[in-house]
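Before the break, one more example. Copy the sequence into your notebook; we will annotate it together after we see the structure.
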Amino acid sequence: MTNKVITISRQFGSGGRTIGKKVAEKLGIPYYDKELVDQVAKESGFSHEFIEEIGEYASVTSSFLFNIAVSAHPMGLIDTMSVSDKLYVCQTNVIRDLAAKGPCVIVGRCADFILKDRPDTLHIFIHSDMEHRAERIVRLYGETKQTPQKRLQEKDSKRKVYYKHYTNCNWGEAENYDLCLDSGTLGVDKCADIICDVALMP
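Here is what the structure looks like once it is written out:
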């Protein structure tokens, strides 16, 4: 496989995680999403819940999850680095270590930027229109007090802010990726097939 490390960035509700998992299964390589969170929790001492919520979203320093993170961290906040910055540094180190181990698929968490200088990487962005994504999140996660559209806009807005803060690049811009795919038009399975075909190109 020419491109042995594949990063999947995605709009909320576009099916990026599912596509990433299918790609990993088809290629027979490790898939890191929840597993990455587990590793970051182990390395950082932050709670799993905090990393899930803050690890690729805009910084939050006055929430219930922030208090969980502070109390769970063995060293506490003993220096001037923000909790979000500490978490980003830890995620960066874990992502680089995972990529160094061999072929894998890594979902989210600015992995495309963190690994941008590796010649053996393939960076993917998955997107879709609001209608497809709204239907998907309701089907998978159920209804909430917020409309599906509001949930999508809020999640994507936070990802944009987080990505811009740590990379100084614009999240979702085609030039930042090797391949951008519309999962609403192509479907999840076809997206996975295309990524595998590109990854296996000589």
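The longest strand covers residues 121-127. Residues 148-167 form the longest helix (20 residues). Try to locate both features in your own notes.
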